[in-house]
Write a structure and sequence with these properties.
CATH superfamily: Glucose-6-phosphate isomerase like protein, domain 1
CATH topology: Rossmann fold
CATH architecture: 3-Layer(aba) Sandwich
Number of strands: 5
Distance between the termini: 37 Å
Amino acid sequence: MHYDNTARLFQALIEQLSLSVDAIADIVGPAADGLVACMLNEQKVFSCGIGLDACTASLLSELLRTPTLRERPALPVFELSQVSAQPLTGAIQRLCDQLSALGQPGDSAVIFGASLNAPSIEAIAAVLNKRQITAVWIGAQGPGSSLTFPGTTGTTALSLCQASAICLAELIDITMFGPLEDIP
């Protein structure tokens, strides 16, 4: 019984991942270029996630800080995440307050939002717009560059967000430090 359920879960994930490769590449590639430019211009990069999306924001932050592909310096990233998000409105307000306090024109944010609702997206988008922070949205349709996974379950969308975060971190590494010719 557990094997069948596990196989079904992974089959759905594999199918959705296969269908999402083009969309992920189309959004994450240019996002990596923009985030590297932001870092090189000494602007701030924020990795943001609330509730279930907090672990994905943490994953991106840790992958940028901790080299996994090669020896390199830690890359600057501000993680703005809150795992315990009850009620969601309080966590969204806290994220908005943090972005308002820390964000400046020219900064960039990666917003992981597979579990965000429309009012939450609007609240975050308003702060990003007010502070003139460029954003890429992963898992949610926000203003500007967005990567969504329509027709997936919540857990599959979260998994695809995690895969996108890993891809984004690797592309930032490659863009910043060159190709991985000698790395398997």
